[in-house]
Amino acid sequence: MLTCDFLAGDPPTPDPILVILHQEHSTPGRIAHILASRGYTLDVRRPRFGNPLPPTLAGHAGAIIFGGPMSANGEEEFIRREIDWLAVPLSENKPFLGVCLGAQMLVRHLGGKVAGHPRGYVEAGYYPIRPTAAGRTLCPSWPERVYQWHREGVELPSGSELLAEGATFRVQAFRHGSGYGLQFHPEVTQAMMCRWVIRSAERLSLPGAKPPATHFQDRAVYDFAIRAWLADFLEQWITAAPRATSRATSIAHAAAAD
Question: Does residue 215 carry a catalytic annotation?
């Protein structure tokens, strides 16, 4: 007797997730590890260095824009292009995630404001956040503190839902349709933290930043909860789209996008 697995053929293969990075050697860190463990491949592009953005996400399960040292208020062509491109995932109701700069780009696309703290404070290190009722509905357990590395914050765009807030920069996580924004960096690995602290040491002298040693001391205390939350969050985020399509359907989608 033929088994159902044989009759069904190959198991469904998830569509890839589009990943947008802003520096030559940037990586998606822990987010890549978690998505890979769920069977997703990553379509990594760097528009800053000439990589095109797809006109549709029909062949992708979702999209993520990560951070970078530039500002969402910058006049660089690739910044404007990425902000405008966000109409694609939002209009197609595809899961989108913006991390730090990516979240700020989402706010700019939605007509909101991105600006520095009025007293010049920055966040660099681990800081407490408070989930809202909506945030707890999405993920029952949130980390007590999260890793931050930013000089600008955002206002909550009209029509968006606040998921978590902080003391220095209020908007820490929000949702708008199929789009999510995180001001903090749950993707940071130990190696990434070492690079940031060493290569951008001048930021740690700004008001509000934590001393270098504190970054690593706090990581030992708070990182386990961040990892657990991130796995839960990504599971909720990606289920906003069909979990998987057949390989044939993925190829057909990619051809249509071309």
Answer: no
